[in-house]
Amino acid sequence: MSKLYINGGKRLSGEVTVQGAKNSALPILAATVLCDGESVIHNCPKLSDVTASVRILEHLGCICKREGDTLIVDSRNISCFDIPDSLMREMRSSIVLLGAISARMGRAKLCSPGGCELGPRPIDLHVSALKKLGLIIDESYGCLDCKTNDCLKGTEIHLAFPSVGATENIILAAATAKGRTVIHNAAREPEICDLQNFINSAGGCVCGAGTGTVVIDGVSKLHGAEHTVIPDRIVAATYLAAAAMTRGKILLKNIEQPHLISVLTYFSEMGCVLQVKNKSVLLEAPQKLSRFFEIQTMVYPGFPTDAGPILVAMATLSNGSSMFVENIFENRYNYVGELRRLGAKIKLADRVAVIDGVERLSGARVDSTDLRGGAALVLAGLAADGLTVVDKIHHIDRGYENIENVLTNLGADIVRKEV
Ligand code: EPZ
């Protein structure tokens, strides 16, 4: 089991090139299942979630090869339609493969993904939409056993909630369905646009991603495609926060500014000086962060739920009290108890967190509770006095490529130890 040992208090400064987006790479890897050919995915981050996806693709019959930041997937000879429990449990977001496998094979079988640290994570929106496309789904014994009598047929789908995963699943299932599918109240996240671009470069016909209405005209088949994954906006926010919390200065390269606007607003409110130029942003931190007045998480283009733990960590060391409201997930505050072990003053009441900034944090032993909560603990450890030991960092490795190397290059005293 590895842990991160952090001697805090170092001022971070330097340059970071942001990795590819995990939440874009995963649905794009699912889309390769639809392609009768070889796909080349550039800027594909080296993450445990990506490794888990590759294992599933290989189980299905794909041939995958990594060349640096590029992943090559040959999906000509897919022969399986099931995802074994062991692989499904490694990564609950494998549910996004359901639409693609069903469309390619006419069959799909996987166990229900179940909940995670963030809450029950239901998939009712996925299931009801795929049924509307003609997928017959038997949900007994904790499994999703799916088949199509003929082929999937395009239809109109109204999502009760703009679910990111459900929107992606529908696009993947509809890309080679017969006829047109229109998704109303679709999620608008940038990762959905990236998926649309990949599918269209593979011969698909999708439009409207990034708006609330996505239109998919089914084509007979997709061929392999070459694609570069967009930068990870949450990882970008994380490294900006590392500099912001240590009175530092950072030049972040390879960002998409429109994807970050809702987050950068609060960095400015907290006293950071930002200069955005083309695909980079320069952040200079103040001597002391100011509080943010109130943040409410919302679907895109609102403030992203995944950046919540990052901004809450920043607020622990700011002047005054900040109010944070989590509106997307039921249970996204597990990391708060661990932040309190570092001296943070945070009051919780259902979805609301009130963070009273303190003069300083002090190092302690803490456990990562989930991916972004774990990142928040690392940030707090970087700013705390003394030694912080972060355990259960497998959560962090799901979404951050070489986090200790990136932070070391910025001047942090952080090492990973196998213990
Ligand atoms: C994606 O999860 C991301 N994961 C999440 O990132 C992100 O937090 C989330 O979108 C919101 O932006 C990936 O892309 C792999 P949702 P997803 O479906 O698709 C409810 C990270 O840290 N819901 O938009 O699961 C659900 O319970 C992860 O990288 C239903 O009720 O998010 C939640 O309250 C964490 N029924 C809300 O919608 C459904 O069928 C948002 O879920 C589906 C979702």
Using the CA coordinates, give the radius of gyration.
21 Å
Structural class, judged by helices and strands? Answer: alpha/beta
Low-pLDDT stretches? none
Strand order of the largest sheet: 22-23-1-24
Largest sheet, strands/sense/barrel = 4 strands, mixed
What's the β-strand tally? Answer: 24
Which small compounds were modeled alongside the protein?
ligand EPZ
Q: How many individual helices?
A: 14
β-sheet strand percentage: 25-35%
So what's the CATH class of the largest domain?
A: Alpha Beta
> What is the CATH homologous superfamily assignment of the largest domain?
Enolpyruvate transferase domain
How many domains would you count in the coordinates?
2
Q: Ends: how far apart?
A: 6 Å
Q: What's the architecture of the largest domain in CATH terms?
A: Alpha-beta prism
Shape descriptor reads elongated
CATH topological fold name of the largest domain: UDP-n-acetylglucosamine1-carboxyvinyl-transferase, Chain
Q: What fraction, in percent, of the residue positions are helical?
A: 25-40%
Mean pLDDT: 96
Structure characterization notes:
The radius of gyration is 21 Å and the shape is elongated. The strands form six sheets. It has a four-stranded mixed sheet, with helices on one face. Strands 2-15-17-16 form a four-stranded mixed sheet, with helices on one face. The chain has a four-stranded mixed sheet with strand order 4-5-3-14, covered by helices on one side. It contains 14 helices and 24 strands. The protein has two domains: 2-18 and 231-418, Alpha-beta prism (UDP-n-acetylglucosamine1-carboxyvinyl-transferase, Chain), CATH 3.65.10.10; 22-228, Enolpyruvate transferase domain (UDP-n-acetylglucosamine1-carboxyvinyl-transferase, Chain, Alpha-beta prism). The chain is an alpha/beta fold and 419 residues long. Residues 22-23, 26, 93, 121-126, 161, 163-166, 187, 305-306, 328-329, 371-372, 399 line the site of ligand EPZ.
